[in-house]
Amino acid sequence: MQSFVTLDGLVAPLDRANVDTDAIIPKQFLKSIRRTGFGKYLFDEWRYLDQGQPDMDVTSRPKNADFVLNQPRYQGAEILLTQDNFGCGSSREHAPWALLDYGFRCIIAKSFADIFFNNCFKNGILPIVLPAKAVDDLMGQVKAHEGYRLAVDLPAQTITTPDGEAIPFEVDPFRKDCLINGLDDIGLTLRHVKDIRAYETQRKTRAPWLFAGN
Amino acid sequence: MTAKTLFEKVWEAHVVRMDGDVALLYIDRHLVHEVTSPQAFEGLRMAGRTPHRPDFTFAVPDHNVPTTGRELGITDPVSRLQVETLDANCEQFGITEFAMGDVRQGVVHVMAPEQGIVQPGMTIVCGDSHTATHGALGALAFGIGTSEVEHVLATQCLIQKKPKSMRVTVDGTLAPGVTAKDIVLAVIGKIGTAGGTGYVIEFAGSAIMDLTMEGRMTVCNMAIEAGARAGMIAVDEKTIDYVEGRPYAPNGNDWDQATAWWRTLHTDAGAKFDAEVHIDAASLQPQVTWGTSPEMVTGIDGKVPDPAAEPDAVKRTSIENALAYMGLKANTPMREVTIDRVFIGSCTNGRIEDMRAAAAIARGRKVAAGVSAMVVPGSGLVKEQAEAEGLDRIFIEAGFEWRDPGCSMCLAMNADQLAPGERCAATSNRNFEGRQGKGGRTHLVSPAMAAAAAVTGRFTDVRDLT
Lengths: 214, 466
Ligand code: SF4
Prior knowledge:
heterodimer; A: alpha/beta; Aconitase, domain 4; 7-stranded mixed sheet; globular; B: alpha/beta; 19 strands; 17% strand; binds iron/sulfur cluster
């Protein structure tokens, strides 16, 4: 996994609540058996006017000029700023894969849905929860100032605005460590394989039916 | 001994070790489908790893399978590759698969309880958010992402922080025609789609315990639509009777030992929850969603809301966006909303009881002119049973299509889709924009309400038809 330490990036505002993973990446693209290549279909139904299909040449598709990510000023954005309950709905990890493939490394929201939040950390994306007031203020700033950037510092747990204000944020220490060091949690868990085997042995005596075989 | 919740009992039985407040949680059964697993198996192979417990892992293709003309195989090459990839991965790693063509094949969350793979007190995961369904048996079951699928394959464990607990108590007696689906839609309407975020919800109360196992599965299935990690319901004799005799259920001595533990799986008197919600069952009407999120729901006597009456600006915009997408005008009575399509099926409402409830309304009636309606059983065994009871003939005579099992138009990943602007009464669980096809408009209802909409061409109180 790609590590995440600091990021100074252009911010794009997605001013909606309850953005679900069906909207982030529609189901027809879930047929892929790969992890990459989803960025061009990110928010497909909002970004394009026609119906997207896998392996379509997206460069010739009609774009929805009203959709925020299609505006020239937000090209190259790496930070997505959004409202409550981002990433709700389906557990598809294709949603963070698409966001990452498009170029987003950090998502700032008032709140996230659980599974999506979890999936971000597994893919080197930092999801940050800020209080409603802070998100509303940033939303106003981003919309008002073209080229608005934020500097995210994960070790320091701060987001610095262009006028130098540092906004603190919370992050779980275990997840922070994994993200900074780009650690794969399977490797971490496999260090405890003895504990897992010991658990299985004692469980087998208490709940033998689970191990009865079929 | 301190009083414990059902959730705590199951959680504590599965903690392998703790690192600070992070648990390594043992997973008893891992369910796998074709959409969220290929990248996980690929990851295993790339790292030279093998599944820790292939015998605890069960796979089934469901999202991409066609629901008609199955003898021709899957015609879409991209879908076919995904299903074939699952077949090959199961073969390579020695995982039991209920492949296409096996009568046991069906939506993963219908198949697994039906086979007895899911049992009380287990921890169960699947790369699918509706894994919450299995909590109906007193299990702790939740959806995970593909990286976690790979983690569980490799280690049979998951790294988890203990969620908070919420109890939703539904007491009283449901009015005739009001079902499990209406309960859960009303719960989501009350607490909102993020109301359960960070929680495991235990559904309790007399109205919940009066439900059949199928009804309980419908309720837990949609816990995720309230944002919850999982839904759970205490074990009672109904639960135990449901499991008994199923192909993967314990036998003999094992059965006695298992049921002795299962009978302890309920919340002790005096146990504390982090949040409590109460609903009076008798106050519920059949529910219909009007918007693009399951919380946008009202009783059949209700109206499409008026955004002008909403003081909160973000909510007002959500309502305006939803009404624009749904093509609805503020203040329209739900009973005046006409429909084009009906979908009866999915892991929420694709079980035998759902087929029976819909057939009871369809019997002797005809699908309204201009409406196309389909019934998609949740598994091959549900289909067989329904046909043995003659339900297929009732549907076909009424003008419904009777399909092969799969996810079908719940998420429209196969050929079953809405056209832009088409309005559908669906028994599935998500009314998100584009869920059933780009521009498609989904209204979530119970099976009986879907059948009632099919035969009248508009949303109708099912109680007017019985
Ligand atoms: S029926 Fe629908 S919700 Fe259930 S597993 Fe299939 S796609 Fe998901």
